Amino acid sequence: MRIIVMKRLSILILSVLALGFSAAPVFGGATVTVNAATSGFVCDGQMSFPEAVFVSRFGTLPRSLTAGEKAQIVGATLAPSPNQPACDGGVAWDVFDGIGSAFADDILFSVNAAPSAPIILGVNDDINGLLPNGSKFVIDGTGSAASTACIELERGSGSQIRNFEIRNCTGSGIWGQGSLGAIFEGLVIHNNAEFGISLGYSLGIQKNVRNVRIGGDQPQHRNLIYSNGETGISISASSSADTSAQNISILNNYIGTSDGTSDEGNTGSGILLQEAHEVTIGDPTCATKNIISGNNNDGITITGTAAKNNSILCNNIGVGLSGTNALGNVFSGVAILGGANNNLIGTAGKGNVIGSNNFGVFIADANSNNNAVKGNYIGVALNATTDVGNSADGVLVGTSTTQNKVGGSGANEANTIAFNKNGIRVEGGTKHRLQRNRVFNNDQLGIDIGQPGVTANDVGDGDTGANDLQNFPVITYVLATSSTVNIKGTLNSIASRTYTLEFFGNTTVDGTGYGEGRNFLGEANVTTNASGNATFDVTFNVPVATTGQYVSATATDPNDNTSEFSSSRNICSNTLISPTGLIADAAGGSGAFTVIRSTGCSAASPVSNNAWITVNSFNGSTAAFTVAPNHGPQRAGSISVHYNNGQILTFVNFNITQAEGSAAGAAPFDFDGDGKTDPSIVRPGANSEWWYVQSSDGTDRAAIFGSSGDKIVPADFTGDGKTDIAYWQPSTGYWYIIRSENNSYYGFPFGANGDVPVPADYDGDGTAEPAVFRPSTGIWYILGQSGDVTSVPFGAAGDRPVIADYDGDGKADIAVFRPSNGSWWLRRSTNGSVFATVFGLATDRPVPGKYTSDNKADIAFWRPSNGTWYVLRSEDNSYYEVPFGTSGDIPVPGDYDGDGRTDMSVFRPSTAIWYLQRSSAGVGVVNFGAAGDIPVPAAFVP
Fold first, then answer.
1. What does the alpha-carbon distance between residue 235 and residue 721 come to, in Å, rounded to a whole number?
2. Is residue 355 predicted with pLDDT exceeding 50?
């Protein structure tokens, strides 16, 4: 039976006005209650559903009403019929006024029944299927003719349909054209062969659907629309006629699920807007939300060139009620197709959660332009941490589109896009502005423009393609403090244009090394020069927690073409030092430099690369160092500041160039590096003790190193301007050296038993080389700093080595004293020539040194028998003698006053007194040592 109602039975004017709808004025009518379980016209004293529809439409039944039927009508005027009796034998009644075609009547239900589909409602007919027990009236379309809707609205109808379960219809659950002011709420529409609700353009009255509400802002308004054969809700409109605003609102519904958690998707999309405009999907107040999930096509499809100015707000699309449980739509969460334009997917503070779909937002086809995606959570829940990623791209913008916007500059307009394949993929088209979005933890790129994968910059940015393949910036430096971040870099693009650069902080880096953009840090404009180049140096006031570990950037040209993200720059990638280096004078001294490093990075570690440079302290930001005096040619060294750049350990150098020092050379036996020889002794024993007096401050120092039988070989082996404690072990040929810079020691073999150790600076580099003289063969062996060995035959058995710088070139010369005839043999390092002279006796003690002022070592000896020093002047080979000391003394020549000249000095073992004949400071007496001690300055006196 076709049930036809030709007028509006009631209207909820307050509800309509609250939603901004308008409605034609109607007269208040009667309320008709269905109390018969039967579905036909039966004379049984009860009101069936068909009878209620008929009396509301025509004001009577095909016959007079029985008293029982009259009792189900409230608010109308009835009178006894002239045709008596009624069909049941009782009083017959006719309607006189208050119900019928001129009135807005309501039909209510006190029992369920099984009416036949379709039920065709006339204009403005309202039905409410809520039963007294709280259940809903069931309209079941089983057995209906093919493609029959269960409820059909007359064209232009403003019917209000509430609280029905509509199922198993062979067509749509509800179908109407040109509907004006209709309301659908509290409905359960499922398992219908076609659409759940299908509303379209009426060709007959040439009107689009308008002022319609599907759902509402109260829990009882919610519609459950699921498991239908096509789309859950379909709104279609004319692309050319009746173009005024449609003002349709779809809110607080479950579409594709019956309970917000179960996957009971409609076979088509959840919602389809075809050429429709000014439709709001979602609650603009965000007090409620649609759950549009589990559907077998898109969650929402908007298509057609007239489909514009639609808004999608505050929905869960592809996730369930909690917003964290996956309930994906098979294709896209939202698809904008077929030239749909100027549509809004989310806005500030009113975004959607779009997750667990294939694509999150899919914009494609020619003229699908000027759409905006703002304030959404795409692939991630509202907490911005829970993964509800879309399996393909978070947002895809296809070819032949233009001027679509993802994100914005306003507060809360940025989208949060995470856990997708790509965050944003711009496959084609131009002028797509991607602005301030939070993009992170996507499987591939944060932004992918053009062909899949990173699109490299090109010089001058002359290439074309998606978003004109806009070049991205290159970040070269980042310094993050607790409250600021400074970013430097370059942009190469089209010449003489102004570009907007956006900067982002990230906690992790994309697998490609190219960035994403978890936290927006700030933006800056740069203008390229005539060559297309621009530099930037920007600082933003953001905490280091916002900056994170990596910084990336995008560039947007004046036409809104946004680039991919730049390569990420770890905030620990750069370590600056200030100043970057030092030119030190020959005298040496102390200094400091600042290490500039981002907050939160692992500590840097300054390490000297040269023994003559000592790092004294480092407090995390300031490194203090000392440069030793230079007694040789100009030299270069460095302190390497080692740090982790986030990938590997690397370093930056603080470079030091030190001026050439005096040819006089360093003072021998100078343990504290002040340029003066220090009185010092070795007390032999199982654990030999070294003692010395620091001439710099008069304090004593001691060390235990070596044992009796070892030969002391003190010299500056590390080049730091200080003598190192050292000994040579004849039995093994091993050298053992304590580094003066850090008191660590090292050892190595060089020489053999029977050799004479003769360390000295043979190459003039300010560092002593280990060396031995082998009397048995008359050969000298010198171990170079690089491990090379030089052998020089010079001398004979019985000769005594007397090394010194005889030619004043800053290099030690190989030389011997031959006791057999008192002759001296020198091999000059300047040219390899040999000089020989006779000076002294076999019992004399050779003490060569720089006694005069020509910076050359003089041949000299001390005669124990008379305590006299004899010096052969290097400048003219004349000699002079100076009595200083007595028999039993030990000659200890050295530069005790630091004037560059050797001082005639002796150590008296009997009293442990040092007598110093200082060339500039006069005679000095020092009590230091004890009987049996070995004076260190006599180490190389034969």
1. 91
2. yes
